[in-house]
Amino acid sequence: MKQDELKVSPREIKGKKVRFLRREGITPVNLYGPNIESVSLQADTIAVKSLLTKMGRNAIITLKIEGDKKSKKALLRTVQRDPLKGTLLHIDLFQADMSQKMRADVPITFVGEAPAARGRRGILVENLTSIHVEALPADLPQYIEVDISVLTELGQAIHVRDLNMADEIEVLNDPDQVIAKVMEARAEVAVEEEAPTPEEEAPEEAAGGGEAKAESE
């Protein structure tokens, strides 16, 4: 797995006051793990953005903490952004034991084009966005490619069991789960009824008007 380096330093400012750090070009970082207490850190925002453009989720980062002679291995877990502006707010890093297997969700990336979904006959339904796996941290993929070009007919589907995964990666999803499927497109056709002409209405009213009146009474 691809690795990169990030220099961080201990962070004393916490809570809502971290907005002042962001204004100075500093991104709050949180490091956590199963055998360590959560650590508040900070990093240069430009360096973090550069890292994010090159690495995805589950990417292993060599963490250089100021004042700590020994670097640490961490996985990029969460990236928080402003929902309106899209600006970087915070990142979470997970410090894992590189010799112990761990579980993680790996995003699915769909590639190709489904022939059965072309035109108006079919529509591609994507049922899963990630796959739950277990592996050593260094073996965790950043994403899983799913080729949908094999979907040539309506009703065809790609299941979890169809994934071609490396031996060192164990897939934890149900093998029968559908990842993607081409369904028949059902177009709703609106039928406009022509309004009857006065000549057509008159006989109906004459014939049924009295009976309807009698029933109502």
Summarize the structure in words.
By secondary structure, the protein is of the alpha+beta class. The protein is built from three helices and 13 strands, in the order βαββαββββββββββα. It has helices at residues 18-23, 45-54, 198-216; strands spanning 3-10, 26-33, 36-44, 60-65, 72-81, 88-95, 102-111, 122-126, 130-135, 144-147, 157-159, 170-171, 178-184. The strands form three sheets. Strands 1-3-2-6-5-4 form a six-stranded mixed β-barrel. The longest helix is centred in the C-terminal third of the chain and has 19 residues, at 198-216. The radius of gyration is 29 Å and the shape is elongated. The protein starts with a strand and ends with a helix. Residues 188-193 and 200-217 have low confidence and may be disordered.
